[in-house]
Fold:
Amino acid sequence: MLDGAVEKSNYPLSYHITPLKGLLNDPNGLIQFKGKYHVFYQWNPYGTVHENKTWGHVVSTDLVKWERRDIALAPSEDYDRDGIYSGSAVVHDEKLYLFYTGNVVEEDGTKNSYQCVAVSIDGETFEKKGPIFQHPAGYTRHVRDPKVWYDESDQQWYLIVGAQTVQEEGTALVYCSPDLAEWTLQGELLRAPEIEKLQQRGYMWECPDLIYLDGHWIFLYSPQGIEEVDNRYQNIFQSVYVTLKKEEDSFILENEEMKEIDWGFEFYAPQSFLSDDGRRIMYAWMGVMEPEMEQSMPTIAEGWAHALTIPRSLSFKDGILKQQPVVELEALRKDRSVFSLEQDWKQQLSSGGTELIFQFDELAEPFALQFLQTTSLHYEDHTLSLTRQRWLDQKMESRSIYLPDGLRHLRIYVDGSSLEIFVNDGAAVATARFFEAGDSFVTYKGKNKGLASCYELCGNDSFIR
Ligand code: FRU
Structure:
């Protein structure tokens, strides 16, 4: 399968899931099925624009080494002829069920969407079974991205789907089913007046994911049309979470603050799944950009675009959703170099990726960490800032987060043109792409008590291509 534009890239990613060529966006259908992890993703195999969406497919036994599979789902029927949009997977009776949105553009240009299912016995080939319910009345055709799960406590299946009311406000609809075949609409996830308590509503909610984690119901979603507030919601579209309480047959808000899942630049459309050993693991698209930024990415000229984040294990404590790289990624570690944080140092970044761990003995004092020439992480006065140069117009731009309890720990995954920064054991995370040519190194400047470990990673062996 060596026809990949990604193979010859000047901005390669090694252990991240990328498309072989063309454009990748959301993670889809995350599941462990018959011992193997399956990751599907939105994929236009024919070009680097948002058209011709199929489900790309990779398989792994350990979340580290991946094998590419043929396209799992491609447009073929009246109900999905213009795109296999995002969705999810469940296992039932030893079969793998993929739920997705069929996208249809009518001759007059209006769009239609159908929530569909496809079934597989072997996890390799999928049989389409068609739409599973009628389009709900009172909502525009912006209904998409079904996420399905089984609820042990009331012994039935649930499906949540992103939607837009006819008043063009974002929402999510919940359906239930005894058997994955007959679906009944229960209503909106948050009914009036609950939904009005949200700080902002936006015009569409994409990729909803409702999870029960460490004793709390957490709703993760990607609302469009959210206004910037202080240093939050600064990207074109956001991915946020709120915590909920379950009432008789609906949910109310436990905490209406829409917390950003990631405070960096490129992070969108996260999806989580439960692994066989009970972990809640999340991937996201790295990530949505303003259209001009996307089309000026240096990889576009090479014929490919985007990647998924690394898999992150989720937990919930003290009102905060925490993300940690899954433990399996430690298998990527090769050589380790250790540096004192009391003096400046410089370290080469490896082509198979680099993992940096900063353990501060006391709360961190100001320091700067620079990646190549223009990308940097800076800490001062409880504020951590990530700055990079926009590849579209060379302007500098920053994202920052205020850390009320200071900075104790940092874990950073650098992979060619991606950065994933886990702050204070994953209590805050920033994700970004950056495109810089030249010598690849990281420089530390500061006077702190503590140590940094730099692991050279062997990500180059991650894909059996
Ligand atoms: C989110 C999204 C989804 C849709 C898919 C299409 O990035 O817009 O709502 O299903 O991408 O590729």
In short: The radius of gyration is 22 Å. Residues 25-26, 42, 53, 85-86, 101, 144-145, 206-207, 268-269 surround beta-D-fructofuranose (CB under 6 Å). The domain at 328-463 is CATH 2.60.120.560 (Jelly Rolls).
